[in-house]
Amino acid sequence: MAVEIYQKTAYAMQNPSQKKAPTQIFSAFQQDLPYYVDNEYISFKHEKTDLNLRFLSSHEKAQQAMIASPNDCVVYFPPDVGISFDREIENRLSNDLLAWNFFKSFPQPLAHLGIDMSRYCSLQTHISYDRRVLLHHHLTWIFLMDEVCEKFPIHQLHANVEKMYLDNLKNIMNGLPVADLMQYESLCPKELLQEAINVQEILAQDLMPLKRKLLSTRHVQLCVDTLSLFFDKQYEEGHMFCAEETSENILRTRGFTIGTTMVFLLFLQPAHVELFSPEDPCLIQISIFIALFHDMIGLHKDLESLQKHDDGSAYLNLVRVSMRDNGWSEKEASRVFAQILSHHFQSFEFFMATYTPIRQEYYHEVLKFALGLFDYHLMGIMESGNQRYGWRKVQS
């Protein structure tokens, strides 16, 4: 079933115009939308292109707006999945992150991304503050963990050093011995090797103890299983770094390596934890939604990374691949992907009507966590703007 999702998504990249489906399946969960949805005066403008990004809660109006405004990417925002954030919790999380023992282990750009994540971790949902801290530490850690994986293939160290690094992370979670990465100090840049060691130490000394303290035994084991699958897919995907691949091949790993299933799991309530599986096709599909949005707003950054040759994963940006395969410009490809996202959100709403009420509630919560990540990529801490991808909020 997961393969079918990949194939349908790849097909949609070539065929964005699809049959309409009914909307508002989740009407029982009606919530307030973010203020920038359905707001004709607020959009997000890219600093180096003439593209604008907007959100509308009507699929039909989103499609009409795309036709009327050739410089706009208009994405359908499911009207029954409201998200909001707690400014007090956000401020507290950012201050606590600055005081975290391991915070100085992060390079400045990644440390700043971690601080920006304070907003996302303040998403209004029913979890304790301590669990928000765990989530915040995990998300900050994953930036560094992932960056290390992106750099190893550039130095031709994927098959040896990266393999040992990822195996060590799995062993740490399972209480097994780890190999000494310093045996590769003659092959690997010193700074990169130290970052990999820092990642291991944070997992062993902070993340795993916190999980065992705050989560049930079942929940912890699901975290181990989910991260182990993530590490395996990271290694598999690393074979594609710095190479031209098809969208079908990229999608086989991307729904896992975007890393959002672990985020969903850390947010979940106990009743929903029992429904969780790291290979759930619906969760993979929602993760692909996030990957497509990530690639759309991060396209310009990845194109620059290709020129600098400083990020092997930039080759796997699905919007860039569509430009290569179809001869589209950056603007054309971005607009097609906005349509694809809108179509997938609407289709997902429709098909969720076939699930039991508890599963509808479960996937509704996961969609909320997913749309919160959309917000994070644009808004940044205290709505100051997330500068990573070059988008800023503008008001006309």
From TrEMBL:
Top-level taxon: Eukaryota
InterPro entries, sorted: Isoprenoid_synthase_dom_sf
Gene3D superfamilies from the UniProt entry: Farnesyl Diphosphate Synthase (1.10.600.10)
Name of the featured protein: Terpenoid synthase
